[in-house]
Fold:
Amino acid sequence: MSKQETLDLINQSLLSLMEFARQTKEPIKGFRTRDLSILIYIFKANEKHMITMSDLARSLRVTPAAASQIISGYEKNGWVTRVRSQEDRRTVYIQIADEIRDKLLMKWNEHMEALSQFLDELGPEDCENLRRILTKVIECFHKTILHEGSNE
Structure:
């Protein structure tokens, strides 16, 4: 397979995976896809379903002010609340509201079930190869793309 054919296959795979994610993580009514992605990121951060404002800004690659503006909109919608740290009053956490947490959990479980069925179709050997390749892709991404972004 030529390099161009491999590039085409990667692009086709990414588009297929994005479509799969779009269909299985179909936004909850009233949520845009980006909002849902941010809320899932907060949801998956830890068992308390909360993250610091600075960590959120860093993960979104935006300024703290821009992250705060996004979160202000989410607060108005009742999706999140800001919680001050008991240890350091300067630290602000963003926590998923209970109602939204339950909706996200339901959607996440649906998404994981669809992914599980997809992996069942691949079989154990192909799953292992996919895991190995995706691990390398993620490592390369972190080494090159994210490292370049930190130099800006």
Remarks:
- The longest strand covers residues 80-84.
- The radius of gyration is 18 Å.
- Residues 3-146 form a domain with the Arc Repressor Mutant, subunit A fold (CATH 1.10.10.10).
